[in-house]
Structures are given as structure tokens and as C-alpha cells.
């Protein structure tokens, strides 16, 4: 895709398609790897595709999380001075941020890190994942407005990340994408099942994972005294309590530097939300092409949540949502 003009002709539409694909390919390959892991068939059955996908994965320009070690080492050997993020896009896990983050990368003023989720809080070499100072200067010679590059990981409640980012750049713009916590809990359960794969299926002590209502019933029973068992890491209920984490970001970076969004509005109509973000980041407002498929969407199909469980969760989250809405000064349709 032409960095300045987006789509102007059939030839440039082809470029746009290729540009779109490169920002979404890592998610598709990661999902495919997990799908194979989730499959009941042997790895030998999937071997041809694994080899092909594995080779393709080595040479991507943008990764979901895990980056081939040789790519990071190559950057380290270059010893070039690298930039730090000047904006943050974060939220809870399974809030739909992957799609929003990846579409914003299509903007000509946006530079992308090597990976969306680079574990800044645990990665001493995190700056290697960012573009060089020279790359940023070269881009700014050919665009109108500033060049931006973001920290894109869903670590809303991780105070180590918050403080590290503030130390690096106290003037960071912070975009927080939230999702109705009732819908997010169901999506998170599905992700637990998908990531856990056969290992979770075979664990009789965690049989309640196979039934969403039992899973939520156990989480509600244990809250807040005991942590719920998890495959993915975050706690299913606590991850949907947003107000205190949002408050920390506002207190640290200033209210004018924090934009809070409901991801449901984005999936209903991407462009108005993308335009709001562009204005917030101080970059030219353009129409960003849409990839079509939802990024990082769970491919497995499971029974929908029953009304009783949804009602229980809605009642559980109501007081916390009220605190959030009071903090940000407006309400979402949750």
C-alpha cells in the first residue's frame, strides 16, 4: 500500500491487500498452530502444514507474540538506536483489541513494533522490538504530521507495565479498549478451552471447564478469596473489573491523555472509532481499509451462555461498572 495515498487505483488496491495481509498473518498462523494443538489428530497428520507454516513464520514483518530468536538477535547485533513507544493501546485480555490495533497500523503515520505482545514487564530487551530512530526520521520526511509507534499489549491491570511506560515516556497517549465484562467472560472461557486443548480435556480435576455455567459458578464461589484455576493466566472475573485499573492509568498519565473506548462500538462500525483514535493521536484522519475477518477470533464453536449465567454475571459486575462510568464521566451500553 502506498504510505501517503492509501487506495487510488486497481494496482494500488493490490498493494493495499498485501499490506493488510502482513499485519494479520501472524494471528492467522498462531491460530492455526493452536488449532492443530487442539485437534484430536496426531502431529504427524499435520506435519506438512506445520513445516510450511513454520518456515513462513520465520520471516514475518509483524508478530502476534512469540518472535523467532534469530530475528531478535539480528537486531541486537545491529546496535542501532531505537525509539520508545509514544502511545499505548491496552485493555483486558479478550477485549477485541487485536483487530483494532492491527487496523490502526495501516495508517501511513504509524510505525509498527516487531510484535504486538512483547512482554515488556519481563523482557529486558524490549526496545529491540521497536523501529530505529533513523527509520522514524525517514518516515517523517514523507508524511504529514508526526510518526507514532505504540505499545500494544492487553495488560490493563499490570502496574509494572504502567510504571515502565511512564518512565520511558510520561507523555504517552493511552487508549484503553474495554468490553462488556459479561460478554468478555464467555469469550475468555472459550479461549481457555482452545488454548488448553487436549490437556484440559483430559484433566478430570478441571472437568467443570467443559461447561460454561459450572465454570462461572466456580469462579463466583471462589471470588474474592481464592484464585480461579486458569490456563491462560488472568483471572476470569477480576479481568472484567475495570474501574480501578482505568483509574491508575488516568492518575499516572493525566485524564487528557487517556481515551477509553467500548470495543462493541468499533465492531459495529470501525471507521468512526478509528477516526476518534487518529484525532486523539494528533495524526491526519484518513479512511483505513478493512481486512474483513475479525483478527485473533477463536475458531472453535461452543454452546452459547445460558441466560441464568449471564444474569448472574450482570448482577456481579453492575456495581463495578457503575464505578467505572462515574470515573470516565459517561456510560456504555452494558
TrEMBL record:
<dbReference type="InterPro" id="IPR027417">
    <property type="entry name" value="P-loop_NTPase"/>
</dbReference>
<dbReference type="InterPro" id="IPR000863">
    <property type="entry name" value="Sulfotransferase_dom"/>
</dbReference>
<keyword id="KW-0325">Glycoprotein</keyword>
<dbReference type="Pfam" id="PF00685">
    <property type="entry name" value="Sulfotransfer_1"/>
</dbReference>
<dbReference type="InterPro" id="IPR037359">
    <property type="entry name" value="NST/OST"/>
</dbReference>
<protein>
    <submittedName>
        <fullName>Sulfotransferase domain-containing protein</fullName>
    </submittedName>
</protein>
<keyword id="KW-0808">Transferase</keyword>
<feature type="domain" description="Sulfotransferase">
    <location>
        <begin position="85"/>
        <end position="284"/>
    </location>
</feature>
